[in-house]
Design goal:
With 144 residues, the chain is α+β, with helices and mostly antiparallel strands. 19% of the residues lie in helices and 33% in strands.
């Protein structure tokens, strides 16, 4: 199982307004298309905003493989939104972490899809535990 970050920018899709827990969406799949598999975990990142708003807003999972989306200039991939965080985990919380500070989205934030290493995904889940009620189930651990 792979973990991904899918980035949105407000001009195209504003996560602050459109995330519906339990809902599904079709997202652009511009990179790593052949590696995306049903059940992979997706972390939803809002970019193109001030630092205090930029970061992770929710997680979900891929509902299927990427496919050519009619009327789009790229592939699409269907995702379910499993959980919207009570507050975003913002970029400043990541840059001081020796594992998360190396995430591809922090080094090269241009694009829609970013792969996470198992170590990055595990560390990201630790941050989620800090903002969630204790009984909230987290996404599947990396490597499971």
């Amino acid at each position: 199982m792979q973990h991904w970050i899918f980035q949105a920018i407000p001009e195209r899709y504003d996560l602050r307004e459109h995330l519906n827990e339990g809902g599904s969406e079709t997202w652009y799949a511009t990179r790593y298309i052949s590696k995306m598999q049903p059940g992979d975990i997706v972390w939803f990142w809002l970019g193109g905003v001030p630092r205090e708003e930029r970061g992770i807003y929710a997680w979900g999972h891929l509902a299927g493989e990427a496919y050519i989306k009619k009327g789009w200039d790229s592939h699409g991939v269907d995702v379910y939104i499993d959980h919207v965080l009570p507050r975003p985990i913002v970029v400043d919380e990541f840059v001081s972490n020796k594992v998360l500070s190396k995430m591809l989205i922090l080094r090269m934030a241009i694009g829609t899809n970013f792969v996470l290493t198992d170590a990055e995904a595990a560390e990201l889940m630790k941050y989620c535990k800090k903002v969630l009620p204790p009984d909230t189930p987290l996404p599947t651990e990396p490597g499971e």
